[in-house]
Amino acid sequence: MRGTWLVGFILLGEAYRGGESRARAGKNAPPAAAAAMTAATTPTAKTGPAAEPATFESLLGSAVAAADMATLLAPFADNCGGEKGELDRVRCRTTHAYLRQMIPHRSFWTIVDDPQVIAVSEFDAAIKGYHLSVAGCLACTRPITIGRLKESRLLTLKVPDKEAESLRAAVEISRNSVGFDSLGEAKSWLAHSRPELRTQFVFQPGQTEWTFGTSRGYAMTLLGLRVFNRCTGEVLISRPPSTGLADMPGIDDGCGEDDGDSDGAGRPSGVRTADDGAPLSKEDVSRAMGAIRPEAFACFQKFKVPGRADLDFVVAGNGSVSDVRVNGAFSGTPTGLCLIEAAERARFSPSARERQRFSYPFFLRP
User: In the chain, which residues have pLDDT < 70?
Assistant: First the structure.
């Protein structure tokens, strides 16, 4: 069956469309064969280790959306035994060898809604909030069907720990906590925000096979992750740090339709304005908050006090911040004063309105 290797080259077409490579392979050679011949004759350049990306956004910028996990894994799972002709088998094996060499050096991203990914504890009075853990699951609940043999495999972002009690625990990759000022606020978050949390992974494909009990799977290489509220764009966890809201087209479909906090004008529930008329757009808030996020994180690094800081902004018509205050536990603290200094430097797009108000949360943590 030729579909696997053809789909593989469509997926990574940009890498194989170089005119010089095809010329070296012969003008009459098929595109797949030309790319494979080029790979066989061109030595791999040796480079030093890549620098660690400073932000999640920079990491994401060099990655490609992974629309089909089965296609990414097909070159590692198929053995080309189903090809009828010898030429087809040779072409398939050569193409798979090339893909096995190239794919692990490319980075991909995906947003996962697997129920195994995010686990939230019971309310912990000691931290006035919840403990969150993230499992490296690309497919831990519903296996992926791979290759012409239709093999079912689970996909993770680490090789499972054999001593763990469950697969989820075996591939846990992050533990965090989120605190609130009151029990009511915590319960509201659990009821309204927790169901909207999504996890975005950036990874490199791999061919590391594993077994855990009766389950079999492949382990990818984790490059970065972030957990965010799909309706507000608020980022709770990010490695490396994020500089703004998560704004993924289409991810917020259906948000605010039945939410009492929504005014029907598309206003995100996490960004609240107090004046009548059109509110500040999500994009404008994201840009302005992203610009001061490094300074806000610097406040945490300076004073080492974790928690959630809610900032109330008043924005003038010229786009400057005319007033900003910190609510909750950070009010009047050195961290709070540091955050105010950072927030006062935020700039928004000018507006015909004299002033606009909104609240924005910053989560301070390592």
Answer: 1-51, 76-84, 96, 98, 100, 147-149, 249-250, 252, 254, 256-279
- Please tell me whether residue 66 adopts helix, strand or coil conformation: coil
Task: Report how far residue 127's alpha carbon sits from residue 17's, in angstroms, rounded to the nearest whole number.
Answer: 55
DSSP state of 344: T
Tell me what pLDDT residue 256 has.
58
List all residues 6 or more positions away from 97 whose beta carbon is below 8 Å from its beta carbon. Answer: 36, 39
pLDDT at 96: 67
**The amino acid at 10:** I
Residue 96: both structure tokens together? 């798979």
End-to-end distance of the chain based on CA atoms, in angstroms? 50
- Residue 335 is encoded by which pair of tokens? 């961290």
Q: Using alpha carbons, select from 150, 109, 122, 157 the residue that is nearest to residue 136.
A: 157
Chain segment 223-233, per-residue pLDDT in tens: 999 999 988 88
Q: Would strands 108-112 and 64-65 be described as parallel, antiparallel, or unpaired?
A: parallel
Beta bridge partners of 152: 145
What's the CATH class of domain 282-364? Answer: alpha beta
Reported as type and span, the H/E element at residue 325 is strand 321-327
43 and 56 Cβ atoms separated by less than 8 Å? no
Domain positions in the chain: 109-239, 282-364
Nearest Cα to Cα of residue 217 among 139, 102, 108 = 139
Cross-strand partners of 151: 146
- Alpha-carbon dihedral angle through residues 17, 22, 23, 29, given to the nearest 10 degrees: -140
- Pick from 183, 46, 61, 198: nearest CA to 128: 183
Q: What is the pTM of this model?
A: 0.60
